[in-house]
Amino acid sequence: MSKVLVLGANGLLGQSIIKRFNNEYEVNASSMENESFIDLPAVPYFQADLTIRYDVADLIQKVQPDLIINTSAISNVDLCETEREMTWKVNVKALENILDACGRLKPVVVQISTDYVFDGNNAPYSEMDEVNPIGYYGRSKMSAENIIRNCSLEYIIARTQVLYGIGKRIRPNFVTWVINALKKNENIRVVNDQKGTPTYVNDFSEGLYKLIMQREFGLYHISGNESVSRYDFALKIAEIFGLNSELIEEITTDDLKQKAPRPKNSSFTLNKFINRTRWKTHGVADGLNLLKLEMEQNG
Ligand SMILES: NC(=O)c1ccc[n+]([C@@H]2O[C@H](COP(=O)([O-])OP(=O)(O)OC[C@H]3O[C@@H](n4cnc5c(N)ncnc54)[C@H](OP(=O)(O)O)[C@@H]3O)[C@@H](O)[C@H]2O)c1
Q1: 244 alpha carbon to ligand 1 midpoint, in Å?
Q2: pTM of the model
Q3: Cα distance between residue 273 and residue 159, in whole Å
Q4: pLDDT (tens digit, 9 = 90+) per residue, 221-260?
């Protein structure tokens, strides 16, 4: 059985990928924290700070993976604007450390990237479209893409966007934020002029699994298959989870004064992914219904 090393394993995506790959692969997990948040006690866990070159070399020598999936990142886009040095270290330098440590092992490397490499003026975006990030997060992720494109290993760059799902001790994502606020009867303000193709995290993991099993390397867009504004997405969340949509106030990006600029419409086209895998991710309502079911099953 092949060995996979999942980096950023304690995050939303890391946890989901580990659940999908477990049993089919010999899974090893690594993240920053001293303990594993993964509910699979048999999965070996290694604490490592990927910005420390020797930590990474040590980790990769210990695990000897055939496949590395790097989900680690600073993904808070506003924080990236103000903490640029730290962002560069985690989102770019850490990938260089990983590639340097691979040496003669020659694993396949998967790097997770983002819709924020686009400026948002020409959606929907395919893998052929030119990148033009408008914020520091997007610039750091674009640089990581360029580094991996120029390495000698087989690689997948998998771009995704607006990931939602559940996991242990994860940061709130858009969907869990809306659900939690509405459950507490809190008013929320949601923008109507940012549009995308939100992604149920387990759909992403399934899609990535299929690409890897078929050895389809290169650049791929993997997201949900329906484009929606944040405001309409919030309304759909309220409807599916039986919550009060009147608490949702419709606003524009200008009202919010966020630190980082956001692309207005960064929706993906998924033709390349669908053609290669013969499989489709879910649309908005179906993805949310799957999440609802998962939440009910997890109590
Ligand atoms: N979330 C989205 O909507 C979205 C959209 C597009 C692309 N992406 C990309 O998808 C990937 C996964 O995102 P996510 O939502 O799962 O993020 P997340 O929940 O924040 O997970 C990232 C993980 O990386 C870890 N990490 C950060 N710095 C590290 C370091 N120096 N060494 C080792 N581990 C480190 C974090 O640990 P700490 O918790 O201790 O910091 C966290 O466990 C990222 O590459 C992100 O850029 C995400």
Answers
A1: 31
A2: 0.97
A3: 11
A4: 999 999 999 999 999 999 999 999 999 999 999 998 899 9
Identify the residue whose C-alpha is closest to ligand 1 atom 19. Answer: 11
Proportion of the chain in helix, strand, coil states, percent, rounded to 5: 45, 20, 40
Which residue type does 130 have? E
Give the CATH H-level superfamily of domain 3-163+197-227+268-283. Answer: NAD(P)-binding Rossmann-like Domain (3.40.50.720)
Contact 8, 29 (CB under 8 A): no
Q: Which of 59, 53, 72, 71 is nearest to 3 (CA)?
A: 59
How many Å apart are CA 129 and CA 177, to the nearest integer? Answer: 31
Q: Which residues line ligand 1 (CB under 6 A)?
A: 8, 10-14, 31-33, 49-51, 71-73, 75, 90, 94, 112, 114, 160-163, 170-171
Distance of CA 10 from the midpoint of ligand 1 (Å): 8
